[in-house]
C-alpha cells in the first residue's frame, strides 16, 4: 500500500493546489482548511460538506495525518511530557505546562539536533531528521489539552532555524485566518541563532523570539555552544538592533546559570553591556542535570543576586520556574531513554 500524504500541515495555498489537481472546485480548499484547523477532525470522512465523491477522491492519496502520543509522563506539578512516534519510528517530545491561567505546549522541531550544545541531551543524541510541518502541528493537534492551550513555545527538541521552512509553514497555519487564527504573541520560537535563519524569521514572522545566550563572552559561549563559531553573539546582537521589539513582538534571552561557570556578577555586568539599548528581557533558567557532563546548576541565592543585578541595571530579568523535575525534565531525556530501551530490546532479541 502506498503511503498517504498528510493534509495536516498544508497551507491554504497548498490545499488549493491539491484540490485543483484533483479537479475539485477551488473553494473546497477553504472547507478542508476549516475541517482541519477549526474543527480538528481526525479523518477525511468527517469532512461532510465535501461531496462523497470528492472525499473518496481525496482519500485515495491523502489522510488527515494526526497521530496521538504513544507515551506520557505526568509530573506532580501538573506538567505532562508526551512522546510522539513519527512514521519513521523516531521519537519526539512535547511538554504541556499548565500555570495559573496559562497552558503552554513546548514543541519539537527536529529529531535530535546538529548543534551539539554541551549541556543539552538532545544535542547528545545527534541529528536524525527534521520534522515536517505536519509533524510539528500534530503535537499541537493531538495532545488531550489541545483546546485549552494558550501558548506554544518552540523549545523542545531541535533547532527551529535549522528547519525554518517547515517551522514557518507551521507558524503560518497557527496564525492565519484560514488556520488556527492565533495571535503571533502566543507563540515563541527559541534558537541558538543561525545567521540565515534569524533574518528570515524576523522578516517572515511576527512571533516572539528567544535567543539562547548562556554566556556574554564569545570564547566561553563557543565552548558551551559550538554554533557560536559560525555566528557570534556580538554580531547577532548588532542584527537584532535593527529591528523594533518595543511593540507587539518580544525579544528575550535564555541564560542557564551554571555554578562557577557563568554565575558571577562579572557575567551579569557583561550581559548588561552587551544588550544595552536593546528592548529585551532575560530569562534565567535552572540547569536540568544530564548524565556525563561536568556542569552543575547554581544555587538559588546566586541566581537571585544575578537577577537583581540585571534588573537594577536596566535589563529586566526573571527566574524561570523549573517544571516537571520528576519526569526527565531536560528535553531529550525521555526520547533518549525510549531509544535506549528499544536498542536493549533489539540486542536481547539478537542474543
Ligand atoms: C532544547 S532548546 C530548543 C530550542 C533551540 N534549539 C535553542 O537552543 O534555543 C530550548 C532551551 O532549552 C535549553 N536547554 C537545553 N538543555 C538544557 C538543560 N539541560 N537544562 C536547562 N535548559 C536546557 C536551551 O539552552 C534552550 O534555551
Ligand atoms: S540547546 Fe537547542 S540548539 Fe543546543 S543542542 Fe539542544 S536543541 Fe540543539
Automatic annotation (TrEMBL):
The coenzyme or cofactor needed here is:
[4Fe-4S] cluster
Q: What is its EC number?
A: 2.1.1.192
Domain (Radical SAM core) ranges: 99-326
Which GO terms of the cellular component aspect does the record hold? cytoplasm
The record's remark on the cofactor is:
Binds 1 [4Fe-4S] cluster. The cluster is coordinated with 3 cysteines and an exchangeable S-adenosyl-L-methionine.
Q: One MF term in GO for this entry?
A: rRNA (adenine(2503)-C2-)-methyltransferase activity
Please tell me where S-adenosyl-L-methionine binds in this chain: 158-159, 190, 212-214, 288
Q: Where are the transmembrane segments?
A: none
**Signal sequence region:** none
As its record notes, the protein acts as a catalyst of: adenosine(2503) in 23S rRNA + 2 reduced [2Fe-2S]-[ferredoxin] + 2 S-adenosyl-L-methionine = 2-methyladenosine(2503) in 23S rRNA + 5'-deoxyadenosine + L-methionine + 2 oxidized [2Fe-2S]-[ferredoxin] + S-adenosyl-L-homocysteine; adenosine(37) in tRNA + 2 reduced [2Fe-2S]-[ferredoxin] + 2 S-adenosyl-L-methionine = 2-methyladenosine(37) in tRNA + 5'-deoxyadenosine + L-methionine + 2 oxidized [2Fe-2S]-[ferredoxin] + S-adenosyl-L-homocysteine
The annotated active site, in chain numbering, is 93, 331
Location of this chain's protein in the cell: Cytoplasm
Q: Does the keyword Cytoplasm apply?
A: yes
CDD domains found in the cross-reference section: Radical_SAM
Q: What class of enzyme is it?
A: transferase
Q: Which family does it belong to?
A: Belongs to the radical SAM superfamily. RlmN family.
Annotated function: Specifically methylates position 2 of adenine 2503 in 23S rRNA and position 2 of adenine 37 in tRNAs.
| Remarks, miscellaneous | Reaction proceeds by a ping-pong mechanism involving intermediate methylation of a conserved cysteine residue.
What is this protein called in UniProt? Probable dual-specificity RNA methyltransferase RlmN
Q: What is the lineage of its organism?
A: Bacteria, Pseudomonadati, Bacteroidota, Bacteroidia, Bacteroidales
